[in-house]
Amino acid sequence: MSLREALVAELPFLRRYARALTGSQSLGDAAVREVLEALLEAPEELQSDKPVRIELFRIFHRLWQPAMVEPLASKGRSGVIAQFPVVMRQSLLLTAVEGFSEEETATILGLNSGDIGTYVRDARSAITDALSADVLIIEDESIIALHIKQIVESLGHNVVGIVRTHSEAVAAAREKRPELVLADISLADGSSGIDAVKEILTEQDVPVIFITAFPERLLTGARPEPTYLITKPFEPETVIATIGQALLLHRQQGDEKITSDAGTFSEA
Predict the structure, then answer these.
(1) To 10 degrees, the CA torsion angle through 240, 182, 134, 77?
(2) pTM assigned to the model
């Protein structure tokens, strides 16, 4: 595989990470585009003796500092976000969502590998302590739905409903007014979870995390796409990390949203 092919293969996952870190498709994709432009101008920045995936994420963090990639942090906000320093959230997302080891994460962030485990544990604890919410699960596979419910409840959240179709999802959201939605893309009656979520978002402002077996199909940067994605099959830590980031950014934004798409969809 050529270097170009290797980079192209990793781009969907860098987009996923950048979107989750910023809480926005447009902001995350802009960060990725600038990294690619920088690499085109200076390809020697990629260390040829290191895995391309690690190098791509390392260069992303070298170019995009917290104040650039996180508008909330750059505004000096306090409150709940103060309990989650950016390095803590970066460490959790890189290990739990992107699957890097603690040593690889340390290389990416330019930190001591001995500190990464502490950051991840502290982030997990802070999520459990500070971010309880009412959660609606849209999932047509009963076993997966129950697995998600167990994970969600283990974090101290309250599951207000599990639904299997577009119409059920819209009705449940209207009645229960959840603070977070976890949604599959393909639903029981052949309907689309994406369409259900779009309808829900016309009536309420709520962060949404999509669950799919094919995340790369929704990470092209070519159209309005989900900000938060979990890949099937998933690990509990992936769900925990993504829920924490989605709730954190959504609550901190409050009435002063960074962009109108911070919950789930935006224009690329």
Answers:
(1) 60
(2) 0.76
